[in-house]
Amino acid sequence: MNPATQASSQIVWSPFKAVVLLLGLVTITASAGLCRAQEYLTGIEWQKPPIIEPGKNPGDPPSDATILFDGKNFDAWNGAETWKIEGNTAVVGRNYIETKEKFGDSQLHVEWSCPTPPEGRSQGRGNSGVFFGPYELQVLDSYDNDTYYDGQAGAIYKQSPPMVNVMRPPGEWNVYDVIWTAPRFKDDGKLDSPAYITVLHNGVVVQNHFALLGDTAYNHPPVYNPPSEQPVRLQDHGNPVKFRNIWIRAIKRVEGKQTREPFIREDGKETPVSEGRAVKGTVRIDGKKPRSGRIGFHPQGDGPAMTVDIREGQFFAVLPAGNYSITVESDDESVKSPAKFREKEKSGLSLTTSGEGEDEFSLELKSS
């Protein structure tokens, strides 16, 4: 930091006063009007997102989903010989079942219902589970049924209770919508990154990008073991829980190629970010931050003016080296900018930037 700019600077006008607090290589001299906005561009060429057909009704599978159970058969599953189909529902039999296909990062939809009238208490009432391999999302009748919190409906078993209990009464249908990020393993089998799970239970978030500690066993601490891709499993825990409308779809990362360095475009001129100087800061008018508005940077001499948005009193711009007059305009009716600071010839505000790096300052305007 230039020692000459470390102290705050106060300039007084009549009838307006502005106080500019400096935190970087910014110098205040003198000089606000309408500016044209600058645009930040990433330099990334993104692939066009594929088009899929959404389900006709909420909960219906989209066109790219893999149907795991639609009430007709267990063709997608192994081990379902003791499970029954009643109407369009699958009723838990005497063993776990698992999908023939294995899945990595996925979006999973499962609907389930606990027996009615309810029987048993705690873990003995309406108990089952939805698994990605050894990782369990608990299914349990948690309607007016106390149990240990990391074992109730919506819990990642023995690891994370649900944020809230949104269980419907026995006999009614519950819905899980799950976003699953599979764990990654190194070539030697050691963990590279953990599994993450987000769960909506009946439309309410109960797990938010929770990082699993490992598998969810009842009888040993969590551990991770390969592989990353796992079958979906449904648990038999001795209760005739019902399932329906189960589908899954692969989640693929958006792909893009960095074809050039990020840059700023202003009136046809493109400035690589690395060649400009980042300027960020705070604007207050009579001590209040405007919710929205604009701050303009007008080069002294040739070159187009640049405008960036003010959001909750904050702004950020990338400017080529040079001298700039500053204008400030608020769109917030409760925090009006004095007319003087909207005109570059009258504002008396300016800054000088040089070289690469970052400047930060606080601009305090007073109307009296």
Q: What does this 3D model show about the protein?
A:
With 368 residues, the chain is mainly β. The chain folds into two domains: 3-43 and 258-366, Immunoglobulin-like, CATH 2.60.40.1120; 66-250, Exo-inulinase, domain 1 (Jelly Rolls). Helix content is 0%, strand content 41%. The protein has no helices and 29 strands. The strands form seven sheets. Strands 5, 7, 8, 10, 13, 16, 17 and 19 form an eight-stranded antiparallel sheet that branches. It has a five-stranded mixed sheet with strand order 1-2-29-23-26, with no helix packed on it. Strands 6-9-18-11-12 form a five-stranded antiparallel sheet, with no helix packed on it. A hairpin with a 2-residue loop joins strand 21 and strand 22. The chain is elongated. Mean pLDDT is 85; it is low at 1-35.
Write the layout of secondary structure elements.
Layout (H helix, E strand, L loop, with lengths): L8 E4 L4 E6 L16 E3 L2 E3 L19 E4 L7 E2 L5 E3 L2 E3 L5 E3 L6 E8 L14 E5 L2 E5 L33 E9 L2 E2 L5 E3 L2 E6 L2 E8 L20 E3 L7 E9 L5 E3 L4 E4 L2 E4 L4 E9 L6 E8 L6 E6 L2 E6 L2 E9 L19 E4 L3 E10 L2
Parallel strand pairs: 23-29
Antiparallel strand pairs: 1-2, 2-29, 3-21, 4-20, 5-19, 6-9, 7-8, 8-19, 9-18, 10-13, 10-19, 11-12, 11-18, 13-16, 14-15, 16-17, 21-22, 23-26, 24-25, 24-27, 27-28
